[in-house]
Amino acid sequence: MMSSAAMAKRAAPVLACIGLLAVWQVASLALKNDSFPTAIEAIRAVPSILGDKESLINILASLRRMAMGFGAAVLFSIPLGLLMGRNAAVAAFFNPLLMVIYPVPKAALMPIIMLWLGVGDLTKTLVIFLGVSLPVIYHSFQGAKAVQEKMLWSGAAMGLSPLQRLVRIVLPAALPEILTGCRTGLVLALITMITSEMIARQSGAGNILFNALDMGQYDTVFAMIIIVGAMGICLDAIFERVRAKLVRWSEPQFDIPLSFS
Amino acid sequence: MAVPARSSEWVRPVARQEPASAIIEIDRVSQVFQTSARKDHVALSDISLTIEEGAFVSILGPSGCGKSTLLYIVGGFVSPTSGAAKMKGRAITGPGPDRGPVFQEFALFPWKTVLGNVMYGPRQQGIRTAEAEAQSRALIEMVGLKGYENFYPKELSGGMKQRVALARTLAYHPEVLLMDEPFGALDAHTRTRLQNDLLNIWERDRKTVLFVTHSVDEAVFLSDKVVMMSKSPGRIRQVIDIDLPRPRRRNELLLDPRYQKYVVDIERMFDESDEAGPDL
Ligand SMILES: Nc1ncnc2c1ncn2[C@@H]1O[C@H](COP(=O)(O)OP(=O)(O)OP(=O)(O)O)[C@@H](O)[C@H]1O
Ligand SMILES: [Mg+2]
């Protein structure tokens, strides 16, 4: 038996979605604007997009770039962030660099990257990589910096080498913070994925969206927004599940989960 | 005073043979910290101390007199500004499994269970998992935490965490235990119980213990020797041998006039001490 509180918790996100769609439906009926289809029209267009082989290939290609950019960023950023957090010299070297890169919208770098690397996968994956890296580096850095020194001393007394301490103490101790960064990074990956496809219009989910816009197929535009949004929500929910599993040992969570899981 | 008949007798006592049992020698150690006020802060000044193998030695002193710093130097976690510490005749240059710290902050690995924490040291030393687990389970039972093997540190009380910290350090068999106010954060009742348990464990295998505290009772109850320190700069004021029989039982000891005299004398020495600063 689920308690009523637990049931309310489960139902809340669903109700929020239904509420949003209802507002959309009413607003669109009231405005009677060609470029603003009703929620029902947009939802109806979803299966035809997902049923279309061409579109599906495009969306999967987007997801593949996103996975590669995200994966590469995580593999690169966590070690860098941890090293920066534990080594003042490494931090002093990379900090100014990151401070300069941080506020620059990564999409703004795209024209240059396109010039060098073309409009293909490499460019888009690189932009995703850049977008994801910074929050992951930052959170890994903060997490590593906050590791209790006595914990490292305890490890040193057991005979762990500096590298072993980094991998076997700093990494797990900083994991909650690292995963917070990764979660932000995941959403940013989705955003930069679409943005990159809007700039380098050659393939991908963002390209479908803008082609439909050009052709005045507004229900397809909104259907794509729904699809991309749903992808984001699903990815985030899956990630949150994994995260919660990995850091169950961590501080007691105050119970407003920021996710749809 | 009797004048010795032969001059050589003047020489002999001076050329005392080093007691073979000295395990830790602290030789004119000073520690100076640069502070933000741009004034150098002398935390330890010219500390010399020898600790014999198997002895339970307490370091007693007001807050800020450098007790922790001294312990960290012996642990090899910080190196002194001048002077040197030796373990079994060899200069201490870094941490090692021969010296096991137990910190006031517990410093458990929060991502490991109680069993995982205790097994960490033995596993690091290459002991097979099954064997490390059996040893660790026995230790966990010894510190009174049977049934809590699969709990995470966040699920334990302060006293239980301190027991885990002790078990985790005992698990890799250090020759010297370095305990920094391990019971400082605990309530009086838990504190007493842990003192008794520690004493039982210690009386069983007589490891050398260097124990930092600012409780006079605790120091007298546990120790063979109490090193009294004074503040700014941190110095050794006096070393007092506690000549009380072992095994010590708390309820007997509290009634023992010799115990009471030690406590009263040491407390008086504290009151007489010139540092009138607040004892934070
Ligand atoms: N890393 C550091 N940098 C600057 N000053 C320090 C540092 N560590 C300790 N000190 C100073 O050295 C002095 C001794 O510190 P220490 O922690 O050894 O004292 P303590 O006797 O252990 O005190 P307590 O009983 O409160 O734990 C203090 O005045 C402290 O401010
Ligand atoms: Mg201290």
Q: What's a concise summary of this model?
A:
The complex is a heterodimer of chains A (261) and B (280). Chain A is an all-alpha fold and 261 residues long.
Descriptive tags:
heterodimer; A: 261 residues; mainly alpha; MetI-like fold; 10 helices; globular; B: Rossmann fold; 9 helices; disordered C terminus; binds adenosine-5'-triphosphate; binds magnesium ion
Protein architecture, described:
By secondary structure, chain A is mostly helical. Chain A has one domain: MetI-like fold (Orthogonal Bundle). Chain A is 80% helix and 0% strand. Chain A has helices at 4-31, 39-51, 53-86, 88-101, 110-117, 121-145, 149-157, 162-199, 205-214, 218-246. In chain A, helix 9 runs antiparallel to helix 10. The longest helix of chain A has 38 residues, at 162-199. Chain A starts with a helix and ends in a 15-residue tail after the last helix. Helices cover 35% and strands 24% of the residues of chain B. Chain B is an alpha/beta fold and 280 residues long. In chain B, helix 3 packs across helix 4, helix 3 (114-124) packs parallel to helix 5 (158-170) and helix 4 (129-142) packs across helix 5 (158-170). In chain B, the strands form two sheets. In chain B, strands 6-7-8-3-9-10 form a six-stranded mixed β-sheet, sandwiched between helices. Chain B has a domain at 22-98 and 177-185 and 207-274: Rossmann fold (3-Layer(aba) Sandwich). Chain B contains nine helices and ten strands. Chain A binds chain B through residues 148, 150-151, 153-154, 156-160, 169, 172-173, 175, 247-252, and chain B through 75, 77, 94-97, 99-101, 103, 105, 107-112, 120-121, 124-125, 152-154, 168-169, 172, 174.
Write the layout of secondary structure elements.
The complex is a heterodimer of chains A (261) and B (280).
Chain A lengths: L3 H28 L7 H13 L1 H34 L1 H14 L8 H8 L3 H25 L3 H9 L4 H38 L5 H10 L3 H29 L15
Helix pairs in contact in A: 2-10, 3-4, 3-6, 3-8, 3-9, 5-6, 6-8, 7-8, 8-9, 8-10, 9-10
Chain B lengths: L7 H7 L7 E13 L5 E13 L3 E5 L6 H9 L6 E6 L2 E2 L7 E4 L11 H11 L4 H14 L15 H13 L5 E5 L7 H18 L2 E6 L2 H7 L2 E6 L4 E7 L8 H4 L3 H16 L8
Parallel strand pairs in B: 3-8, 3-9, 6-7, 7-8
Antiparallel strand pairs in B: 1-2, 1-4, 4-5, 9-10
The complex binds adenosine-5'-triphosphate and magnesium ion.
The site of adenosine-5'-triphosphate (ATP) has 13 residues of chain B, from strand 2 and helix 2.
